[in-house]
Amino acid sequence: MTPSPAADWRTPRLFLMLMAVALPLGYATWNALLNNFAIEMAQFDGSDIGLLQSVREIPGFLAFTAVFFLAVISEQRFALIAIALLGGAVAVTGVFATTTGLLITTFLMSVGFHYLETLKQSLSLQWLSKAEAPAVLGQLISVAALTSLLSYAVVWVLLEVFAASYTVVYATAGAACLLLVLFMTLAFPRFEAPNPQRRQLIVRRRYGLYYALTFLSGARRQIFMVFASFLLVERFGYSASAIAALYLINHGVSWLLAPIIGRWVGRVGERKALTIEYIGLITVFLGYAVVESGGLAATLFVVDHIFFAMAIAQKTYFQKIADPGDIAGTAGVNFTINHIAAVVIPASFGVIWLAAPEWVFILGAAMATGSLLLARCVPEAPTQEAPMQLWWRRSQPVRIT
User: Looking at the whole model, is its pTM more than 0.90?
Assistant: First the structure.
């Protein structure tokens, strides 16, 4: 895993940083233009947009299939293919301005995006030591946030200063991804993981607490992505530019705070970090339910996003309890569990929203309360042999084989 002395800059950590760049480089541009492109060029209506978002979520739900490809290809090589698929799909999006064309390019983009997310998590937990993982994972979030900020800025310049077409903007972002993957392919040697990985789906009883935390985390993310921004628009009249500005603030805050949060998680431990995260989320969701001020709602929106960086604690908790050979086989399962909520929450909670919007956030607070109770089951010093602790029994960590 150690590169030659003549090329010691080509480290696994730098490879992970470039993976973190590739994800928002393609996706941020695609997402920034999506609604305008779909309506103006592909003549989408509301039902078409709903269908498109469902298609976009399918690869996330099927992320567990990544492990099947690892029987014939290394994770590092597979990650490069995923970046190429993401960049290639974004590059040609502007050319296929039809319903069918946009559905196909969206699906291909999402396949590359979700496989890359899965592989980034897997490789991070394999290549990073348990001591350095929290801080480096924070740095990866910061790098991704900065890339998103720069991507939005480039999109604005291309559209407003150079009056570029959607085709040109999409092609520029996609080409940047493809150039990045070409550089990574030629510049980096193959890094060997410290522990051989099992090339099969891994579902173990002792990872049950991690699975439960992952599921509830996915549900919380959907409430933030779908309903928190919708609240700002529907109730407080925020314009598209104002929402875009809030997202820019979120990425800027993540860029500054994520490395600090990562180091803090490494210092205080997963149990305390997750406890503070979920207490904060309960407060934020209850705030959404009763807020009467647009400014306060926007503040809650930014604070809500900050808590995403604390999800580092979930990843490092799994790293500490996992058999080192299970990481690749569990990464896809994790993403699939995370995306179960993406299928269920938007539609079911949308019905609740029509009757009583505040109950969407009250239920979100209830989910956060469930996460808090689960977080208290995380031991102070989690290990493979003792992955959980039953706090209501005041017991020692429970040993699960």
Answer: no
